[in-house]
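Issue: ligand-bound run for arginine - logging full I/O for the record.

Environment: standard queue, default settings, no custom constraints.

Inputs:
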Amino acid sequence: MDNPNSTIAPQSPHGAEGSLRGRFSEATDEFVQVFTASVSFDQRLYKEDIAGSKAHATMLQSISVLDSDELNQILQGLQTIQDEIEGGVFQWRVDLEDVHMNIEHRLIELIGDTGKKLHTGRSRNDQVATDIRLHVRAAIDQLISQQSQLLGALADLAETNADTIMPGFTHLQAAQPITFGHHLMAWFEMLRRDRERLLDCRKRVNQLPLGAAALAGTPYLPNRPMVAELLGFEGVCENSLDAVSDRDFAIEFCAAAALSLTHMSRWCEEMVLWSSQQFNFITLPDRFCTGSSIMPQKKNPDVPELIRGKTGRVNGHLISLLTLMKSQPLAYNKDNQEDKEPLFDVIDTLSDCLTALIGLVPNIQANKDVMLAATDQGFTTATDLADYLVRKGMPFRDAHDVVGRAVQLAASQNRPLEDLSIEELNGPNSNVIEEDVYQILTLQGSVGTRDHLGGTAPNQVRQAIQRARAMI
Ligand code: ARG
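Outputs:
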């Protein structure tokens, strides 16, 4: 089994740690020791584990399980351990299985018998659940601040492009003229909801499991609200069985992350398309693109492609966690150890993808002429013509037919709509189109008419950006 972490010492020649094996008559099988260990990946929780232990010890002193001298020794010992870990001198041991046992073992080495009292009224089951919740909470706070930064960058780019005309698409066919600013603000809306979802999920993450002990609670009558307050939790998990076994919060977090990445992936797909020679709507900064090893002319949009690709693995992690939980009886089962790697990877992947977009977005350059020319093809003002006929008293379905005929004529002669004469525009079934039609066939005229809340008119886009800025 590969162990990516070189700071992990090989297993002890004396077999597994004696302290947990009082009831066994033989040492743990060597393979089983490595197979069941999680320290290679859960050492990432060291800070949360130490914070949780400090709060637990403080509470133990308040209910007279520890005296204040013992508490001080424990707090100082834990601080020394944190310094050792952060200084890169802590020796992680696989034979000590996980982050919790490694830290506890070192505490006993450092301060002796007093260290053995720390685990009173606690189990690794409520300990690990607490650690993960603290870790996810910190991750959410960091991700939310990244999302806010990205939202700001989007609003800025939208403002610069509030008047930039481009074709809006349905079925990836040019549909109607819109502004690039309006299009960007659609992405803003998605990302804003993503941020809201994380914020909402945080409430359910931020509940304290400690006090549940292994599954049934503990006879030491712990002051759980006190521990919750020390660790910044909003409340305590109500039921001890649920407290140690629940991973809903991790699933919810991954679901929110998967949806957020799904949005980012859709957006990146557009960047890939739009930066291609075929569209050429935008130019991506050179420093976010890569070359080809064989084709010297290539400028590949690797960053958006990779974000699109990484979405797959995050969606996969969500399914991993759902599957991990689906057959577990109450309460804690060792299966739960498998929650960490997917969860950590989701945190890192979402964070990296946000970092990439935060760097990329302010440097996206809109090729306005190309966008405008593309809007001019594809009869994107056909709906405006139909609306014009409706204003002249024609029922919409009849107007649709009149315009359809005009488009057919223009397409067959490869001419834009505004090139047709009044007679050609009217065709056999209308006589209401007059000279004033030509001004509504312009692209600026078309977007300008969508001047309502949520519409694409530059004036509305500017107002939407203003409201958006107040939200960031
Ligand atoms: N490493 C374990 C995990 O991640 C810690 C809890 C172990 N508890 C137990 N009863 N074996 O879930």
